[in-house]
Amino acid sequence: MKFGPVATADAAGCVLAHSQRLPDGTLKKGVVLGAEELRRLQAAGIERITAARLESDDVAEDAAAADVARALAGADAEIGKASTGRVNVYARHAGLMVLDAARVHAANAVHEGLTIATLHTESPVSTGQMLATVKIIPYSVPRSALAQVLQCLRGTAEAASGRRALRVAAWRRVPVGLVMTRLSDTADNVLTKMREAVVSRLEPLDATLTVEDIVLHEPQVLAEALQRMVRRQESPKLLLVSGIAATVDRRDVVPAAIVAAGGHVRHAGMPVDPGNLLVLAELGEAEGGVPVVGIPTCARSPKLNGFDFVLRRLAAGEKVASADIMAMGVGGLLTEIESRPMPRDPRRRG
């Protein structure tokens, strides 16, 4: 692409770089100059303009933006109309936006004029919400650069998984079971607060609390409660366990009860704060069992914590492995909960 001042008489087919106010109106930037536009400029006494002239190896901004958007997102996203080098991408349905950030980083590194901006990966989104915007900054880009960007977005990973770099995993309407434990002196309002916090988290994810139980904070009693839930005729597809005391070791009450019930602990702890003391487990077969999450006690607060990160993935049908949890540390320093008995910053105590 050639860019710079050009004589108006020689500007046929060029793209106007800057809007021009004329006696009979305004010529907006980005317009391709034809005979009528040139006549208006000359009638206004404008002899030179700043314009871009596309060459044979250039792709016009709107066409390039549309190509990038189609390579970025698949059938669960709606591609908007290209205009002024921009195409927006919207969610076709509610769910969890899942992003292959490495592919987007690689695409953005190809050419300064080809840009992709997205929401953070694993953002919960509603139907019609904007997920990303593709913007071509100049009026065209080299065909070779566009081809490289498209290859980065498609990549070898797509060939293997069939998934685009950006997708929306729909909420799965998961039926959920909740077991809360108590001690002899546990106040009812403590349990009520946790239950309300759990329900308020499930509702936006289209998940439903279908069965619940309250038992003593003892491994065998809790194990029996979990077994009763999975043996139900219409058993929940996700089990949540709220221990009245925080889990600080794999041999503590909640993980010990899961093992006693025939399950196995996938991960104990997470690099997200608040939320460090979460337990991820599975009850049943080694593969395809019922996921079990030991909820950290900080989840009594409605504020965002590590439990939300895991719950969202499970509600969208996304697997959560130990490696996934360990990767949540970047961005895992969340807002402190005021009621926390041991604040992370001792200078704030009192």
State the CATH architecture of the largest domain.
Answer: 3-Layer(aba) Sandwich
Q: Work out the helicity level.
A: 25-40%
Assign the CATH superfamily of the largest domain: MoaB/Mog-like domain
Order of helices and strands: EEEEHEEHEEEHEEEEHEEHEHEHEEEHH
Query: What is the CATH T-level topology of the largest domain?
Result: Molybdenum Cofactor Biosythetic Enzyme, Chain A
Total domain modules? 3
Q: What's the shape?
A: elongated
Going by helix content, strand content and strand pairing, the class is: alpha+beta
Number of strands: 20
Question: Mind explaining what this structure looks like?
Answer:
The N and C termini lie far apart (64 Å). The model has no long low-confidence stretch (mean pLDDT 94). The strands form six sheets. Strands 16-15-17-20-19-18 form a six-stranded mixed beta sheet, sandwiched between helices. It is of the alpha+beta class and 350 residues long. The chain has nine helices and 20 strands. The protein folds into three domains: 52 residues, Molybdopterin biosynthesis moea protein, domain 2; 113 residues, Aldehyde Oxidoreductase, domain 3, CATH 3.90.1170; 155 residues, MoaB/Mog-like domain (Molybdenum Cofactor Biosythetic Enzyme, Chain A, 3-Layer(aba) Sandwich). Helix 2 runs parallel beside helix 4, helix 3 runs antiparallel to helix 4 and helix 6 crosses helix 7. Strand 19 and strand 20 form a beta hairpin.
